[in-house]
Structure formats: C-alpha cells, structure tokens
Amino acid sequence: MRFILEAIRELEMKEEDLIYFKSWFSDFCARYYFDDIDDQRNITLKEQHTKNVCSNMVEIARAHYIDPNDVLLAEAVALFHDTGRFPQYARWKTFRDAVSVNHGLLGAETLLKEQVLVALPADEQTLIIQAVKYHNAYKIPAFQTAETIKFLKMIRDADKLDIWEVFIELFSLPPELRASAATLGFPDTDGYSGGLITCIKDKRIGNLKNVRSVNDYKILLLTWIFDINYEKSFRLINDRDYIARISEYLPRNDEIGEITAALTAHVREKAAVSY
Ligand SMILES: [Fe+2]
After folding, report:
1. Model pTM?
2. CA 11–ligand 1 middle distance (angstroms)
C-alpha cells in the first residue's frame, strides 16, 4: 500500500513545480512591460492582482481541503488564471473581452503554446488549462469533471475577492491616477441603472452587457456576491467589509441603503457569522 501511495505521489505536482511556475510567470510578465506610464500601470495592476489572487486561493484551499496537492494545484491555477491578460493588453490595449478576445481562452492557449506545464502529469495539466480557460465564463460549464469544477469554483471566488479590493482602491483615487483600462472605459456619470438593482433583489449575478456607467459597474461588482461558492470566501468578504466599502462610492439614497443591508445579511448568513 505504501509503495502505491508513493508511486501516486510521484505523479503529482510538487513544490518545485510551483517554484518553477512562479519564476516562469514573472519572466512572462516582464516581456509585456511598457515604457509608457499608463500602459505599465495596467500591466502592474494585473501582475499584482495575480499575487493577491494566489494568496486568496491558498486561503480558500487550506480552509476546505486537507490534501497538500489540492493547495499546490490551487495556487498554480491562481498564478496562471490571468495569463491571457498580458498578450490581450499588448495587442488590443484593453481588458474588455467583448471588444478584444476572451482572456480565459487566450490564457489557456498561451500556456499550451509556451509548454509551461509539460512536466506535470497529464490530468493535472488538463485541470489547470480547463480552470484557466473557464475561470471567467459567465457560468461554470456543466461538462467539466467534478475535480475541475472544484478548482473553477475556488478560482472564481479568489479572483472576485481581489477584483473587489482592486476596485475599492481604484474608486478612492482621482480619475487621472486610475489604471485607465481597469474601469473598462465607462463614463463616470451620476445615477445608475435599475436593472442591476433588480438583480440584487432577485439574488442573481448581473451582466456586463447591462453596464452603462462606473456606478453601474459598482453595482455589478456587488451582484457577484451571488456567484460565490465557498464559506471561507464569504468569511473573507465579511472580514474585509467589501459590501460597505463598495457602497460608499455609490449615490446615498434609500434604495442603495436597502441593497447594502440585504447583501450584508446574505454574506453573514453564508459565512455563518452572527452578530
Ligand atoms: Fe483575475
């Protein structure tokens, strides 16, 4: 039995693989550095985002899975999830998939073309590629294996956690200091669309297609609460106070007050936190 277990372990991703992947990834990012300050700010934003998503991912994986291989694979998925953002920005100078390319798909293609994962067992290579490819899909495709779905659910949570952090920081900055590609070019006008508020009332995720302004984008970010999978993620949302911190940048009125309270209650219930 011991020999079988050791043989299986031989066929698993190791700590050394993760070290190699991290060094490959920083060399990869460096290929996309710009002299222009604004372009470089956009690249730095994604490089820093990747680091933060890795740490969120490890927190979620450790809280829910005891197998160290799950934690290593989880971190590799997080490290590579936005690989497509770099060639996307280099070619299209935007992070808006709808007007350029699906960055999940481009990331998966890039990892395959660069043969980054070849030292891993075939099933782990497939898992990482599939998780990168679909991390940004509107819904998790049902045709994935249960194992891939587990990692997709983790990366989708870990990614959202940092996107909230990035945007809260961005909203606090004067527009001229914001990374230009981050707010996807929406106008920073007053008011907001009622359709996105309805999504929150119906407890469902909104669609970027219905976003017309930066305020709409803030409400879209709040609807993401309804696409969170793990209890640990809800606990992090609660601890980091994302709902109140985003709502702070929305117009102050009864409607916004009500959705903020409803979202906060939802998070506390899912995080199993009582006050
Ligand atoms: Fe991401």
Report:
1. 0.91
2. 28
